[in-house]
Amino acid sequence: MKDIFRVRRMWRPRGELKRRYDVVIVGAGSHGLSTAYYLAKNHGITDVAVLDKSYIGSGAAGRNTTIIRANYRTPQGAEFYSASVKLYEGLAADLDFNLLFSQQGHLTLAHSDRGIITANERAEVNRLLGIDSRVIYPDEIAKLCPEMNLSEEVTWPVMAALYHPPGGIIRHDAVVWGYARGADRGGVEIHPYTEVTGIERSNGRVRGVQTTRGDIECDTVISCTAGWSTLVADLADVPLPITTHILQAFVTEPVKPFLDVIIVSSQMHIYVSQTDRGEFLIGAEIEPYTTYKGIGTFPFLEYSAKHTLELFPQLERAKILRSWTGLCDLSPDYSPILGVTEVDGFLVSCGWGTYGFKAAPIVGTTLAELVATKQTPPLIAPFALERFYKDELVSELAAAAVSH
Q1: Which regions in the chain score pLDDT beneath 50?
Q2: How many structural domains does the chain have?
Q3: Rounded CA gap, 294 and 301, in Å?
Q4: What is the spatial distance between Cα 305 and Cα 282, in angstroms, rounded to a whole number?
Q5: What's the CA gap between 308 and 125, in Å, rounded?
Q6: Are strands 23-26 and 48-51 parallel, antiparallel or unpaired?
Q7: Is 59 helix (H, G, I), strand (E, B) or coil?
């Protein structure tokens, strides 16, 4: 009778480390697991170990605020994230896993003439790339979100918005679990609680990694560690032009659902969505100081709540349920750093700021292709580390005013 009720594990328990793998991935979050999954699925590369110093999805993947979108400012960024959204749209079927993906639409509010100009610039770039994005005004905003306060009796009246219908939210933990299960079933080994303490290299290339559970030989090391990316790259003597900041967010107690679009205000530096549980999820910009401390601050709660109530005064009696922080690694041009480095065999996915989770499927697809073919896919070529030495930056600051 026990066999009748036996439930198959999501993935195999952690086994013993082998002495050698073809590929070692540092970081068992959405990027590391997606790369492992596509290595196995698309290229038949299964001699792969995914290592994490904590549990699966314990870093940025488990602390992000679940927003998916493609309405970026640069052609390179918009094209890249558009490819990721398309992969997300079919990901539940691909993984055979319910990801609770809801493409309910994304509104970036404009409160000034300059804000409207920026919105129109982004919309034009988006349309040229076939991305559904356009500027709308208060009459149409009211139809999409009748619960929002659109009066002029506020500090920052809403003058327009960049409307991006494909934007949505997805359960971040489900994405991590789905990729982990898929990678595991493809033959990849996942090793939580296995910290990388050193990266061995000789003659300009990677030879292996040192961990708290022993040393491993390998041909390729991929760092997918978000806020810890500079520390991991330092182990390979690869300097990264990155600073680490905290991003804060909080959720209210559950409220009867009434918000079915994502609201972002660049001028007020907040974003608001409602989760499938009814909680209002509210976040802001990264903190301006660099730190690895995961300590929230009262001023964040104060100004975020104040600006949220300007848009949704009906939430004035809603209680804050919990708050948290996550680490963000920020590059000088607000775009990611992807692909090869000066050390042969050492690849990186870093510099994401607050955009990393949106890119998980396309990062995994392109990095897996890079490993398999030894050729950088055109989609990620603009985000190479060498752009900072060639002065070929991809400035995404105009789409990053409020992180999400």
Answers
A1: 1, 4-5, 401-402
A2: 2
A3: 15
A4: 8
A5: 29
A6: parallel
A7: coil
Show the domain range for 125. Answer: 103-166+244-327
As a whole number of angstroms, the distance between CA 249 and CA 134 comes to: 28
Burial class of residue 202, CB neighbours in 10 A (0-12, 13-18, 19+):
exposed
Claim to verify: residue 309 and residue 365 sit in the same structural domain: no
Place of tokens 């990388």: 196
**Which stretch of DSSP H or E encloses residue 83?**
helix 75-89
Domain boundary among 295, 327, 359: 327
360-373 and 30-43 helices cross at what angle (nearest 10)?
A: 50
Distance CA 26, CA 34 (A): 12
Strand locations in 203-276 (E): 205-211, 214-217, 220-223, 243-252, 262-265, 270-274
Task: Say yes or no: 196 and 313 in one domain.
Answer: no
What is the Cα–Cα distance from 265 to 168, expressed in whole angstroms? Answer: 16
Helices (H), 90-213: 91-95, 113-128, 138-144, 172-185
For the segment 93-124, what is each residue's pLDDT rounded down to a tens digit? Answer: 999 999 999 999 999 999 999 999 999 999 99
